[in-house]
Design brief:
The chain is α/β, with parallel strands linked by helices and 345 residues long. It has helices at residues 2-21, 27-36, 44-51, 57-64, 72-86, 104-107, 127-130, 141-146, 157-167, 210-217, 231-253, 278-295, 327-343, and strands spanning 151-155, 177-181, 202-203, 206-207, 221-225, 258-262, 298-300. It is globular, with a radius of gyration of 21 Å.
């Protein structure tokens, strides 16, 4: 009897090894791992998890996160996202795979991940853009890159895309940056208490108020891009009021921290959704710039650098037929940020 049990144990071990070799894993385990990192899978996502049980992990995770059907580039980004979740290092995203709240009907079908980009005016064709932001002209290149030591970038899914871009370029100055970004994040819900329905970014495995996470990170500079999820809810005046209130709380908790507002980027022509249209976004950015000047904060102009001749988001920079952006757009962010740093040294 003992001999038979021994043989049975070997057989079961071999079976498990074969299953592991095939890369199969119950998605519920992956879902539990996601829960441990401050995320939850609910609603339609929970149904996807049930459907995806016993499917190879590389496919089932994308189904569970709502990304199946995206491009090869999107699959690579999602693979990075899964790796960071599983390693407990996903400190910048409380809601992986989420799209813009008020306008996700315009872009969610593509299954692409959030993107966001900073820009340099004319030039996606610059040497820096072509090389993914790795080249820094001039003798003060190191000084320019060091400007971002101890900085943190705060935002919604547009910023989350920049974080994913930066994760793949850790041999550049992008490794100097911290990120507090989450899908569906806004100036409005950033002021909510942390709870079951909140989408506050995760830091050190836990959702916190932005100003608390910034304190823990010891950030000397905060770059903020918000508004995409606000305009259709609180309008121009209300969004600016919430924005200023949020920055006030950041400064109260971190009085020595510099504030730098980044302009909100545009959407594709013909893809407007209510107040989320480019004329309103231009007006909003003008109000943000005035608010920054009045309070002595920095202002980084990124939207115009990604615009086409009509003042809309250039199609070559868009990843989802709506507002999210691709790596080429983030190359432009890199150029804009370096130029901004050089001007503020």
């Amino acid at each position: 009897m003992k001999k038979n049990r021994w043989k049975l144990g070997i057989a079961m071990g071999m079976a498990l090894a074969v299953m592991a070799g095939d890369g199969r894993l119950d998605v519920s385990a992956a879902a539990n791992k996601t829960e441990e990192n401050g995320q939850s899978i609910t609603g339609k996502d929970s149904e996807r998890v049930k459907t995806a049980r016993h499917i190879p992990i590389d496919i089932s995770m994308k189904i569970a996160l709502g990304t199946e059907g995206g491009s090869k580039e999107d699959e690579n980004r999602e693979a990075d996202e899964i790796k960071y979740i599983e390693n407990g290092q996903n400190e910048g995203n409380a809601g992986n795979g989420q799209m813009i709240d008020e306008a996700d009907a315009q872009g969610a079908e593509s299954g692409t991940e959030a993107g966001g980009t900073d820009a340099l005016g004319e030039g996606s064709g610059s040497e820096e853009a072509e090389q993914g932001g790795t080249a820094v002209p001039g003798e003060n290149a190191e000084e320019i890159d060091a400007y971002f030591d101890g900085s943190v970038f705060v935002g919604d899914s547009i910023m989350l895309g920049f974080r994913n871009y930066a994760m793949k370029r850790q041999d550049t100055f992008l490794s100097r940056m911290g990120f507090l970004a989450a899908g569906s994040f806004s100036a409005n819900n950033a002021l909510w208490e942390v709870g079951g329905d909140s989408v506050h970014p995760v830091y050190q495995g836990e959702q916190r108020q932005i100003w608390e996470s910034i304190s823990l990170m010891g950030s000397g500079k905060v770059f903020i891009m918000l508004g995409m999820n606000d305009l259709n809810i609180t309008g121009l005046e209300g969004t600016c009021e919430k924005y200023e209130e949020l920055i006030g709380k950041i400064k109260e908790a971190n009085p020595e921290t510099e504030i730098h507002i980044m302009s909100m980027t545009y959407v594709l022509k013909g893809k407007e959704a209510g107040k989320l249209n480019n004329d309103t976004i231009r007006e909003y950015n003008g109000m943000l710039k005035a608010m920054a000047e009045e309070n002595g904060w920095g202002y980084v102009e990124v939207a115009d650098a990604l615009a086409d001749g009509n003042g809309d988001l250039a199609e070559e920079y868009c990843s989802d037929g709506f507002a999210h952006q691709n790596p080429e757009a983030y190359d432009v962010w890199v150029s804009v940020l370096r130029k901004y740093a050089e001007e503020h040294l």
